[in-house]
Design a protein that fits this description.
Strand content: under 5%
Number of domains: 1
Radius of gyration: 19 Å
Order of helices and strands: EEHHHH
CATH class: Mainly Alpha
């Protein structure tokens, strides 16, 4: 068994991953905004009684946005560590990574509109 600090390596990888997520949540304002959006999506989904397939799509969208934000933050941490000075190439990489988060968030917004607006319309026109 591969062990590190007296713990099975498999368990340690989950601890490392959780520490990374907590670090991003503590340091990145945008990640906290996405977490708040996730809570709103869950609330709207529950209130509007979305079906199983809609829950699957919403879960994938939320997961993808959070994934993109964590990956973006990891790239920024790495870039700042490797090359702390201002560098045009590093800036382009960081901008592109942030752009990926924006693309994921906009796609998730469109999915949310497609799922929630018709349900809200029906609720409001009853």
């Amino acid at each position: 068994m591969n062990e590190r600090q007296g713990h099975p390596r498999g368990l340690q990888t989950f601890r490392d991953a959780w520490r990374g997520i907590v670090s991003v949540a503590k340091t990145e304002f945008n990640f906290r905004i996405h977490l708040m959006a996730m809570v709103l999506v869950i609330g709207f989904g529950w209130f509007l009684k979305v079906d199983a397939m809609e829950w699957i799509v919403l879960t994938l969208c939320v997961g993808f946005v959070l994934f993109a934000e964590v990956l973006n933050t990891a790239l920024e941490y790495l870039a700042d560590t490797v090359h702390p000075e201002v560098d045009p190439g590093i800036r382009k990489a960081k901008d592109a990574s942030a752009g990926a988060v924006l693309v994921a968030a906009l796609a998730a917004l469109v999915v949310g509109i497609i799922i929630f607006i018709p349900k809200l319309w029906i609720l409001l026109t009853k």
